Amino acid sequence: MIIEKRRLAVLVGLLAAILLTGPAPAAADDHDDDEPPPEPPRVELVLDVSGSMRAADIGGRTRIAVAQQAFNEVVDALPDETQLGIRVLGATYPGKDKKVGCRDTQQIVPVGPVDRNQAKAAVATLRPTGFTPVGLALREAAKDLGTGATTRRIVLITDGEDTCAPPDPCEVARELAAQGTKLVVDTLGLAPDEKVRRQLLCIATATGGTYTAAQSAEELTGRIKQLVDRARDTYTRTPTTVGGAAGCADAPLLAPGVYTDRERFSEHRWYRVPVRADQELRASVSISLDRPLRPDHAVLLRATAPDGRELVRGSDAGSGRTDVLSAGLRWSATGDDGDDDADDDTGAGTEVSATPDADRPTTVCLVVSNAFAPAAGTRTEPGMPVELTIDVVDASPTPDGPDLGRGWVLLLLLTVAGLLTGLLAGVLTRWWVATWGEK
């Protein structure tokens, strides 16, 4: 009984501490009313329903049953703003006429706001049937998604290589990429076959997508959800392809925007950004973990002066997704002269120039580094997919008074709050025991 009363006293103390520290600061609204609303993310799932999907080799279940379960879970978890379509291949023609079977692809759910019941009902009726016209299905899926200012994504799930070429699916992927249709194809392989792996890897690489082998229902469901989430996270701005250099002097000069590149294992890739003295640089990088890695790995983003002095760095940070590693930083040229220490909390670091001219851009070098090591048997080429986001905004003046963003002030406030919590909990506990303990 006394233990229960002490627990109650502690809870009361914690509640009091929360009230003492006050509410969390409100987030700033950066929305520009003059900006047109972004297009919704558009994704099409392309499912192989050819005869080989009858194989019962995934935990004792057929490949098609595992795929159907994954689709149902993905549809249930689909963000409301995502426009989803579903296309199948090899689903309707059971005969042996290859000419007919290789035209067997249909869109069973049009791209648009999803009716979850309709989508799950359409997938539930699928039965493994015919040939595997992957190339044709990709070409038709690109038409289903249409064109626009933002990236479209195709997620291809198959257990076998194309049996109908031409068109060769890898050539179709290159063709779509060359057309500038802003289309990314991610591929998921359900069979541990080397030919299938090479073909799906080729398709993904040609369009800037990723390849993953899924050997269980959990892997397949989780990976599809990740890819749909990625479409939601990145659809508003289409990345521009850029090639980082081996050093700052030869690095490409980048304006604010979103860029995509590829980085080999344990490589450093350099970029340059013009930043005026009255501006603040904000940059982030994400590297997709599209192949097996050794357990210890990290990504590092640094800003340096052209002479090599480090201004600020941002180490890797968890984003809640297992397929991406990210890092970010902020820096402005408004720090004190002669201060050689970068400040990770505020983004202020050393000045690139001792007396910068507000009208003259100053070049800041960005370097993306990784400490990745491939697992045994993992390919090393091409490099890992990199997405670099750069923004340059007006520098924010340093507040005159203390605020919760300062490391020492925040630590002091948390310490005081903890002491008050402990003191209040102790007083309440002693009072409770003294008053009610003997009853």
From TrEMBL:
Coiled-coil residues: none
Give the stretches traversing the membrane.
Answer: 408-433
| Compositionally biased tracts (Acidic residues) | 336-346
What ranges does the record give for the region Disordered, renumbered to this chain?
329-358
- What does UniProt give as the signal peptide span? 1-26
Please provide the record's keywords in A-Z order: Membrane, Signal, Transmembrane, Transmembrane helix
Protein name in the entry: VWA domain-containing protein
Q: Where is the VWFA domain?
A: 42-231
**Which domain of life, per UniProt?**
Bacteria
